[in-house]
Specification:
binds zinc ion; Peptide_deformylase; globular; 3 helices; metal-binding; peptide deformylase activity; 5-stranded antiparallel beta sheet; hydrolase; alpha+beta
């Protein structure tokens, strides 16, 4: 397995819409494995393919937080929200492509999601709690949307300037 470099905002690939996969191939299974490893190492709870420069509709996540609980890695190809609760919930979100920046985002508290699994079969499940936040955040990535797009323009611009500075510093290092 390989750890992949994670793109940092702003980057045109993080603003673009990703393409659905026609079929779950061995190459795509390997990419999903690499993305899981990259996510765990970061560490993070979710990662979408565009964040590693792959413009396909694939995301991985594991929202198990308890230290001694068994990990629950999930791989979703072509995920889509097919239902959402009216109840909303606000959660302070962050993003591996926007390091060290956090902000409150309001989203439906529970969502029904349909996707293709590693087995190539269609799966459907209801997500709640942190899993619901994470799956919606990651599906947004597949549509070129970041959590800062939910914020007021001034706050978004402030975060974007910080990231531009971070990228300049990293490029110089
Ligand atoms: Zn993110």
């Amino acid at each position: 397995m390989t750890t992949l470099p994670i793109l940092i905002h702003p980057d045109p690939r993080l603003k673009a819409r990703a393409a659905p996969v026609a079929e779950v191939t061995d190459d795509l299974r390997r990419l999903a494995e690499d993305m899981l490893q990259t996510m765990y190492e970061a560490p993070g709870i979710g990662l979408a393919a565009p964040q590693v420069g792959q413009m396909i509709r694939l995301l991985v996540m594991d929202c198990v937080k308890e230290e001694d609980a068994a990990p629950k890695p999930m791989v979703l190809f072509n995920p889509r929200v097919v239902g959402a609760s009216e109840e909303v919930r606000t959660y302070e979100e962050g993003c591996l492509s926007i390091p060290d920046q956090y902000a409150d985002v309001e989203r439906p508290a529970e969502v029904d999601v349909e996707w293709l699994g590693l087995d190539g079969e269609t799966h459907r499940d209801r997500f709640d709690g942190l899993w619901a936040v994470c799956v919606q955040h990651e599906i947004d990535h597949l549509d070129g949307k970041l959590f800062i797009d939910y914020l007021k323009p001034l706050k978004r611009q402030m975060i974007t300037r910080k990231m531009q500075k971070l990228k300049r510093e990293r490029a110089r290092a």
